[in-house]
Design goal:
Layout (H helix, E strand, L loop, with lengths): L8 H20 L1 H6 L1 H14 L8 H19 L4 H32 L6 H11 L4 H10 L4 H24 L4 H7 L3 H4 L14 E4 L5 E4 L8 H24 L6 H15 L1 H5 L4 H19 L2 H7 L1 H24 L4 H13 L1 H10 L6 H26 L1
Helix pairs in contact: 1-3, 1-14, 3-8, 3-14, 4-11, 4-12, 4-14, 5-6, 5-16, 5-17, 5-19, 6-7, 6-19, 7-19, 8-15, 8-16, 8-17, 11-12, 12-19, 14-18, 16-17, 17-18, 17-19, 18-19
Length: 394
Amino acid sequence: MSLFQPDWTFALWAVLAALAALGFWADRTRIGSQVSGLAIVLALGMLLSNIGVLPKSAPTYGVVWAYLVPVAIPLLLLKADLRRVLAETRGMLLPFTLGAVGTTAGALLGVWLLPLGEHSAELAGVFSATYIGGSMNMAAVTQAVELDPSLVTASVAADNVVGVMYLAFLALVPSLAIFRRWFGVTVDELRVTVDGLRENDDTRKSDTAADGTVTRHPSPVTALDLVHLGVALAISFAICAVGQWLAGVLGVGGYSILFITALTVLVANVFPRQLAKLTGDYEFGLFFMYLFFAAIGISADVAAMITSAPLIALYAAMIVLCHALAVFGLGRVFRTDLMDSVIASNACAAGPASAAALAAGKGRPDLVAPAVLLGVFGYAVANFIGVGLANWLA
């Protein structure tokens, strides 16, 4: 039982909105800019649910996952330039591949080192799928390999907690000096901006003090145009409707986000000049994504993991560790870009929604489209990798 009940719909929406606002505010503070507003939202959401203030599951969170996340994808991508997306994706493809290889290696290493028992092959398939694609792939492979029901809950609990902790870690990475030195990146090159918006030399200026401290000045606030916002939302909802319909017709309803992304990129590149005039679309998409981060943080059940899944949690953590070592260790060898590696790792380990949110929250809207594209690519291949690995080990 929790202080807030699952059917307290308006109260839970108030909490989600407050957590999102806190994340935006934190990004403007000195401490928050170092820790990251996204990490604060995740950590605070997890804390509130695990001390009994908020319920870990509620219909409100389902609305965020089922409706706000799909709607946010077009809002974030309406101004996507396909030529630039393809160029940026090429830069992120190598770290994404390294992450997938690291995930698979971690799954195999865990089977070899940990006493997972007779279900080790199925667990390897399930966790390799979820850390190459996402939770949707975890559910699909769980069903495909017929994982014992007693292990399903423990696996989900372990995945939620380990996954959220890794997301928080990724949100911190660009601000950590050790990673900046490792990848040879300066603070300016990170392009982390006030309010989480992309740095633009035409609208923002920065002053550099004698000690090297960089002070950025926010660009003037643009008035919100409700006509533009209404048009953007209408386009986004329409794209989601068509994408979901197409996925259902083709019998792949679980992959509707792939169709939504493809349709958005198509519309964005057919009508680039018209869509470039819209204002407020990106900001609303970013807000929806912060709500998403708040919801997934709240859903992480630490108690369930500790009581029923310590060994499975250790297995999940081992896989994520191997994934991170491959992305950031080998990434340094292959000289990948730090932000490319962070977002590609997120897309691989957690899927397109959180990767897009992290890219947007870090002030890199140019990486939102490639993050989504890589994430849905992970969706497409993860089931095959997971089921194939499980069958091979069996």
